[in-house]
Amino acid sequence: MLKCAFAVAIVVLVGSVNWVRAGSDLYAGYSHLNLEGNDKNLDGASGIDVGTTLSTPPAFDIPSLRLNLRVGLSYFKVDGNDTAEEPDNTQLYIAHLDFGPSWRHDFGNFFIEPGLAGILMLGHYDADSSNSQVSFTQWKGGYGFQPNIRIGTSWPGMEGGLQASYTWGRLKFGNSVGGDLNDFFIGGFIGWRW
Predict the structure, then answer these.
(1) What is the Cα–Cα distance from 105 to 61, expressed in whole angstroms?
(2) Alpha-carbon torsion (174, 177, 182, 183), positive or negative
(3) φ/ψ (deg, to 5) at 184
(4) pLDDT tens-digit profile of 72-123?
(5) DSSP letter assigned to residue 124
(6) How many angstroms separate the CA atoms of 154 and 176, rounded?
(7) Which residues lie closer than 8 Å to 170 by C-beta, 6 or more apart?
(8) pLDDT tens for each residue of 39-64
(9) DSSP readout, 25-39?
(10) What CATH number did the domain enclosing 174 receive?
(11) Domain range holding 146?
C-alpha cells in the first residue's frame, strides 16, 4: 500500500510541476545512524550520504511551495570486537528515494527552506565474523519519514548551502538485525536552476 501511494505521488509530481522553474542539486555529508537489533555495530554508526535532488514549484502558482524528489545512497562501515553482537566487520548500504514538499523563504540572495519527506529504502547488510550469530549478507526494503531543512545562498543560475535532516524509519533484516531506524544527516549542496 505504501509503495502504491509513493508511486502515485511521483506521478503527481511529474504531471504537476513547472519545469521552466525547476532545479537540481548534488549533495554530500555526514550521516549518524542508530539501527536497533542484534548487530550493535550499527547503534551509533557514522557514515556518508550522497545523492541528487530534483526540485520544482507545482504548476499552480504558489511561489514558496516546492516539490522535491531525492535519490541518495548512505554507506556505513564499522569494525567490531568479533563477539556475538559485534561482528568483526559490518557494512550497510541504504539506497533511498525521498519525496515531499518544502516551503522556501527568500531573504535577498539568501534562503531558508524547511520541508518534509516520505522515504522508501533498500538496504544491503553485510557482516563478517567468526563468532557472531549475525554474520550474513541480505537485501531488505524499508520506509521512513523525514523533516529536513536547507539554508543557502543563490546567484544567477546556481545556489549552494547547508542541509540537515532527521529520519525515523523501519529497516529490518534477518536474525533480528535491524528494526527501528534513526538517522541524523548534515552536509552541503550545490545546485543549478534550469
Answers:
(1) 15
(2) negative
(3) -105, 130
(4) 999 999 887 766 667 778 899 999 999 999 999 999 999 999 999 999 999 9
(5) E
(6) 46
(7) 142, 143, 144, 179, 180, 181
(8) 888 899 999 999 999 998 876 677 78
(9) EEEEEEEEEEEEES-
(10) 2.40.160.20
(11) 2-193
What is the model's pTM? 0.85
Sign of CA dihedral 96, 29, 146, 116: negative
| Number of domains present in the structure of the chain | 1
Q: What's the one-letter identity of residue 112?
A: I
**Dihedral sign, CA of 78, 84, 88, 92?**
negative
Residue that is written with C-alpha cell 544567477 in the block? 156
Give residue 148's identity as a one-letter amino acid code.
N
Determine the Cα angle at 32 with ends 52 and 34, to 5°: 120
| Unique residue bearing C-alpha cell 550469530 | 133
